[in-house]
Specification:
This protein has 183 residues and is mainly α. It has seven helices and two strands; from the N terminus they run ααββααααα. The chain is globular, with a radius of gyration of 16 Å.
Length: 183
């Protein structure tokens, strides 16, 4: 198992995938910054989940984890939310890794179940982070907003992946969904 993970990470971080990871991290950062709805505990709701889910579906758990963690964390840093950077990197990065590990076949049920499990992790992670930064009372009030953000991200990320996969079939070779181009 450990050797399989090492091989998967090596495959994800080959020289030809590093520019892709950099570009997708930049796109994720910009998309996260594009829509910002401030929340009471000094955070904000955004579209980061869209790119977290898309990246995990398209590029697998390890590249998706880097993109999903680094993009939103950079957005926090640039947008004036430095207190969230470490939390965001860990929570969002693990969300993408979980999606990539749980979703192995391009089957809507698999994608929804794996994505919801990863989304529940994210909501829980931000509840804990919000509790640490602002107290657990205010963090409790963020659960509905974070759940909504996760649901919107899942729907839009799934739709985006489906559209890009149909328009650009070689994308499936980069991910972990074990499907052939054109399927």
């Amino acid at each position: 198992m450990a050797q399989e993970v090492k091989n998967d990470i090596k495959k994800a971080l080959q020289v030809n995938t590093i520019p892709l990871i950099a570009i997708m991290t930049a796109v994720t950062t910009v998309l996260t910054m594009l829509v910002k709805i401030p929340t009471p505990i000094r955070g904000y709701l955004n579209l980061s989940d869209t790119m977290i889910y898309f990246s995990a579906y398209a590029f697998g758990p390890w590249a998706g984890g880097i993109i999903g963690g680094l993009g939103p964390a950079l957005s926090d840093l640039i947008s004036g939310y430095p207190q969230w950077v470490i939390f965001t990197f860990v929570i969002d990065g693990l969300q993408a890794v979980l999606v990539g590990l749980l979703v192995k076949k391009f089957n809507p049920a698999n994608i929804i179940i794996g994505s919801v499990i990863a989304g529940v992790w994210k909501v829980f992670g931000y509840f804990i982070a919000g509790g640490i930064l602002s107290g657990f009372g205010p963090a409790l009030g963020e659960i509905a907003g974070n759940s909504f953000q996760m649901a919107v991200g899942l729907i839009v990320g799934f739709a985006l992946f489906t559209a890009v996969r149909q328009a650009y079939p070689p994308l499936v070779r980069l991910g972990n969904l074990g499907i052939k181009a054109g399927e």
